[in-house]
Amino acid sequence: MINMRRLRFNPAVRSLVQEYSLDSSKMILPLFVREGTGIKQEIGSMPGQFQMSLDVFKEKIRQLSDLNIGGVILFGIPDVKDEVGSDAMSDSGIIPRAIEAAKSVNDKMLIVTDVCFCEYTSHGHCGCIGDVGGRKEVDNDKTLDMIARQTLAHARAGADMVAPSGMMDGMIGTMRTALDASGFAHLPIMSYSAKYASAFYGPFREAAESAPKFGDRRSYQMDIKAGIGQAMREIQLDIDEGADIVMVKPALAYLDVIRLAKERFPDLPLAAYNVSGEYSMVKAAAQLGWIDERRIVEESLIAIARAGASIVITYWAEDVARWEK
Ligand code: PBG
After folding, report:
1. Average pLDDT in the 231-236 region?
2. Are strands 161-164 and 111-115 parallel, antiparallel or unpaired?
3. What are residue 27's phi and psi, to 5 degrees?
4. CA within 20 to 30 Å of 196's CA: 7, 51, 62, 202, which one?
5. Which of the following is catalytic: 26, 60, 81, 195?
6. Is the pTM of this model over 0.90?
7. Ligand 1, closest atom to CA 203?
8. In the structure, which protein residues have their CB atom closer than 6 angstroms to any atom of ligand 1?
9. Which region, left, alpha or beta, applies to residue 135 given φ > 0 means left and ψ of -120 to 50 means alpha?
10. DSSP alpha helices (H): ranges in 116-264?
11. Whose CA is nearest to atom 2 of ligand 1?
């Protein structure tokens, strides 16, 4: 008789036939840096995640150095915000200084930077505001110039990879051209290619102090009800413009998008962002004693890997690395 339970009959057999396992060396941990000293401010809606001043951040990098994690992705919160997000484009902005601080502690740790403006602008949008068809909206092409400047500031400070998350058209091509023209042809771009206008980013906007002051991000991020083909088009365009790694975001509500992206674009690495809301929901339920956090996290991260993402940006990267140890 066909007996499916034979391959489950004891732990050794089960282990032998497993095809997926967590691998913290493929996980990237998001970190939030801000001005000041001695600041380690827990994010209310994200227990276990903090806004850190650079001294505290440096200590964090030191601790992470003993763990087998893939790298970190940095988000900056400047003291002064303005219409165009000047701090984001400055060589003495919060992120260039954070990169230098991290490299001074560990020059081998992969440092990825988020390239976007919502944390830096007074209005909280991901670019500068212009008149688009008579409406106050993010001006795509003016924002591209800003993106090029921000990218080069990160590159000059020593970032290992830049990751644009603003969903501006042409951002990858603009960044590639700027990098290549300035001696950074070697720097890879990980594009947030298929990024949906998702309610799952809610806690992040508290963490990064980046909620839009008017309107929302639906004119640049993807509609959650759009056909899946639109996500494939976004990814294809980014590949054509020179993206080295493409990403689907969020992860868990979009496993079908991850799966299809892996099928359509098997030739380049695919990342997924296990976003703040996905983290907070699990944390909240765990705090209430309703679920087993570690098992839920493992199951979720395995699902993302099985869907086809080989790289995962997740707030649990450090925990996973500790569990592995
Ligand atoms: C935008 C950005 C966002 C996230 C990463 N980059 C938020 C947004 O688009 O509003 C969300 C990440 C998360 O929710 O964990 N710079």
Report:
1. 98
2. parallel
3. -115, 140
4. 51
5. 195
6. yes
7. 14
8. 114, 116, 118, 165, 201, 204-205, 217, 275-276
9. beta
10. 140-157, 171-181, 202-207, 228-241, 255-264
11. 165
